[in-house]
Amino acid sequence: MSDLNLNKNTATAATDFTVPANILAISPYRAGKPTSELAREFGIEPDSIVKLASNENPLGFSPRVKQALIDYLSNSSLADLGRYPDPNAFDLKAVLAKHYGVDMANITIGNGSNDLLEIVSLAFLNRDSSAVYSENAFVVYNLSTQARGARHLAVPSKDLGLDLDRMFEAIEEDTRLVYIANPNNPTGSFHPKEEIIAFLDRVRETRGNKTLVVLDEAYNEYLDPELRFNSAELIAEYPNLVVLRTFSKAYGLAGLRVGFAIAHAEVTDYLNRVRQPFNVNTLAQLAAIVALQDEGFLEQSYQMNKAGKAYLSAEFDRMGIAYVPSFTNFILFEMNEGPKVAQALLAKGVIVRPVVGDGLPNYLRVSIGTEAENQRFITALKEVLA
């Protein structure tokens, strides 16, 4: 009886909380279902489950990173984990600065690029400002804008990609941030360097540095070599540009959470004023340093993804399934009653991502896995559709 009374009192007390309306309006971010949960739900052996929902690197991280972590945990350095990590990530910043040809003062380290999106919004948005982003883009742009109480200027997508012309036209006097995901998640579309520079020119000519352009390049390493460009070089000419990168995708460090922003030194200073001081742990900093230097693993990841993307695209063509040509490590494909199909695939031990929350109820997103995982997905999909 006392437990029942306690629950009742707790529920009653919760109704007395004073929460800002902009926070109440937020729907929590829904990540992909973990394999352990699926195994319990459907009584499936965990080792037989194929997880293709969160755009992770199916190779994991590189053997060099693994060995570096083992070495660290096997010697006296283990005692250092009882201490806080380097709050400024000096060694990691030094490696990144050399790799991208910028100063350390241009770099902000984050707990994944999600953390950096929050940091940028915290530094530049408030209730008297607005942010521009595209529909059918990364949901965190919406969430971080909502969390600051800023106005949303969501622009309809064009052919399931970004409409840069309409995004520019949507900028208003109080617009402080414009989010551009390139390549875009969850649709997989991409804009070449020339189009990005043209957009930056238009913003600079009309807004100066009043509006920052946040160029989110989480999937850059999966681009074909001829499409890649070092956007970090652009910050010298465009002080209102913030470039975001992550180690969670091609580098395979999703479980350790490391991302970084490259921006004008003054912008970096503002970001560090609101950044949590110990936001990237010691092991993550070490892993990122080693991962950045292992170019062979990065190339292996790119080649596996390229082959898997070609295989899935060809299978979709054979099955008559419409999909968006992808520049990433996932493919968005059209599927009536997408959530039901996703649920049926779950029962077969294959996890894909419904994108209803991204405004695409008749689509699913599948991450590109190993050859065996891709084949398993196609086999399961054919069985479900049959």
Search tags:
alpha/beta; 3-stranded antiparallel sheet; single chain; 12 strands; 42% helix; 7-stranded mixed sheet; 386 residues
Describe this structure as you would to a colleague:
The N terminus is likely disordered. The longest helix has 25 residues. The chain has 386 residues and is α/β, with parallel strands linked by helices. It is globular. The strands form three sheets. Strands 2-8-7-6-5-3-4 form a seven-stranded mixed β-sheet, with helices on both faces. α4 runs antiparallel to α11. It contains 14 helices and twelve strands. Helices cover 42% and strands 14% of the residues.
Would you summarize the structure shown here?
This protein has 386 residues and is of the alpha/beta class.
- Main β-sheet description: 7 strands, mixed
* Element string (H = helix, E = strand): HHHEHHEHEHEHEHEEEHHHEHEEEH
| Beta-strand content | 5-15%
Count up the helices: 14
Tell me the radius of gyration.
Answer: 22 Å
Count every beta strand, where a strand is a DSSP E run of 2 or more residues: 12
Category from helices, strands and their pairing: alpha/beta
Uncertain runs are: 1-13
Strand order of the largest sheet: 2-8-7-6-5-3-4
Query: What's the shape?
Result: globular
Describe the protein's topology.
Blueprint (H helix, E strand, L loop, with lengths): L1 H13 L6 H4 L10 H8 L7 E2 L11 H12 L15 H11 L6 E4 L1 H13 L5 E5 L4 H9 L3 E5 L8 H7 L4 E7 L11 H15 L4 E5 L24 E6 L12 E5 L1 H10 L7 H12 L1 H25 L10 E5 L3 H10 L2 E2 L1 E2 L8 E5 L3 H15 L1
Parallel strand pairs: 1-10, 3-4, 3-5, 5-6, 6-7
Antiparallel strand pairs: 2-8, 7-8, 9-12, 11-12
Helix pairs in contact: 4-11, 5-11, 6-7, 6-10, 12-14
